[in-house]
From TrEMBL:
Name used for this protein in its record: Glutaredoxin family protein
Domain of life (superkingdom): Bacteria
Entries under InterPro entries matching the protein: Glutaredoxin-like, Glutaredoxin-like_YDR286C, Thioredoxin-like_sf
One Pfam family per UniProt: Glrx-like
PANTHER family: GLUTAREDOXIN-LIKE PROTEIN C5ORF63 HOMOLOG
Amino acid sequence: MSPLLRRAKKKAGERVVTLIGKPGCHLCDDAREVVARVCAEAGAAWEEKDITRDEELHRAYWEQIPVVLVDGEQHTFWKVDPGRLRRALEE
């Protein structure tokens, strides 16, 4: 029997948070503030993608924006909870 394998724990500085939104979206503005603050505190990198400039993202997320991904996996949408995002970056 093989031992259980666990994913290596990443440090916050190795994580990438992606905010998917669009211009003129007040929820996206709120999410941007939370993501920027939490990532700065944790030392994590973050990027923003505009669904109006990416057809694939638009198809996937247009009803959910803002959407937050952590390392490419969906973390949340609509409202970003700073504590939950912080914990995700520490996992």
